[in-house]
Amino acid sequence: xxxxxxxxxxxxxxxxxxxxxxxxxxxxxxxxxxxxxxxxxxxxxxxxxxxxxxxxxxxxxxxxxxxxxxxxxxxxxxxxxxxxxxxxxxxxxxxxxxxxxxxxxxxxxxxxxxxxxxxxxxxxxxxxxxxxxxxxxxxxxxxxxxxxxxxxxxxxxxxxxxxxxxxxxxxxxxxxxxxxxxxxxxxxxxxxxxxxxxxxxxxxxxxxxxxxxxxxxxxxxxxxxxxxxxxxxxxxxxxxxxxxxxxxxxxxxxxxxxxxxxxxxxxxxxxxxxxxxxxxxxxxxxxxxxxxxxxxxxxxxxxxxxxxxxxxxxxxxxxxxxxxxxxxxxxxxxxxxxxxxxxxxxxxxxxxxxxxxxxxxxxxxxxxxxxxxxxxxxxxxxxxxxxxxxxxxxxxxxxxxxxxxxxxxxxxxxxxxxxxxxxxxxxxxxxxxxxxxxxxxxxxxxxxxxxxxxxxxxxxxxxxxxxxxxxxxxxxxxxxxxxxxxxxxxxxxxxxxxxxxxxxxxxxxxxxxxx
Length: 515
Fold this sequence. Notes:
This protein is about 50% helix and about 15% strand. By secondary structure, it is of the alpha/beta class. It has five domains: about 1-140, PAS domain (Beta-Lactamase); about 145-200; about 205-380, P-loop containing nucleotide triphosphate hydrolases (Rossmann fold), CATH 3.40.50.300; about 380-440, Helicase, Ruva Protein, domain 3; about 460-510, Arc Repressor Mutant, subunit A (Orthogonal Bundle). The chain starts with a helix and ends in a 5-residue tail after the last helix.
């Protein structure tokens, strides 16, 4: 009996190892396709801490070549310039023992690129056998951001010292001192306001790890993000509630020219209408009942940075002209003040409303709609990206399990089928909530659903359409998303999987013309 049991266990271990090997080989094969375009440097290590693969950004950032990197011990790269004590401690002690994830910052002198401050994020990747594992190391250069934070307080101290000297000088230097004092007060106010805001913000991982998916819809969103991130153009993010519009805003900010500053956020739907103006533009002491001191608004805090106006469709009609004024000339006044303040702010807005319909109903200004709708990006609903659901489930189950101290390793096929067949009116946010309840309900390694997810039953009496009508609507929707680009890279023909001549023939057949 013992021999049979031992033989069975041995066979199971062999199968697990073979599965792990195939999984890791598939991961390496897909590395360039999936992660090769990511702008952050990424490197994959094997269990012996030797380099298996790195993306193009890694080689470009650290000025090394694949032939001198792959197969090398991570510490030996570039004549041991990667022999960083803190990295060694993490990889050899902390990470193998008690964690699948760790991130930290190190300041180090690299021979090829000089003194840098790097944010490193290490994550274990292991299979069923727990004997085969790899480590994914992502790296972000935060040198400029950290130096900016360090030097801002030094600048305040330096200016303050200059004021003390200037006050002791002759009468003709008094005006210089007053101007410097105004500058110091502005710097102090902005520094304190930004500190207070950052303390309220929840720390998020940088965006590309949160926009999860490989569907055509998500790939097109990421293409649009990279296309617009390097400019200061206003972006309008559209999509149903729970689709991840804020993640798109954060992705644009972190890939943009203002990434060293904070992304300042205002949710226009969560504040009472009488407080939104103060939140956006600030107020002076005594401007209204309860205004016991002067307060900077989010536009002043975001001067030189990016302001994310979430749920812009909820902005009261009476405040829309003031927002339009800031967008057009960068000027506004605090509540209770006649002094005009000028700011340089990049604006990203988001809404789940159909703003054109709101304009027709008189609930949204037409001129503000035109100013916001320069570069729209539509986040697809979860029901239109069913193939992304397994990736999202894997991500959230691991994240939730770690937070709750559980080890969910098996997701039954019946559970995954139920998740993929559900309509998801609440989109990714609803999916995350369903998975959290499932993890709470699971006592062993297998995920168990609490919610009864039923596939949507369509009412044929109200939704019945001909095949041609459905095809025409789908073609028009994709053409709108691609700004009527028929052929070429990221065009409607590419997304639809048609030859351009075939697509043009369909457009002629259905009478589809560019508006």
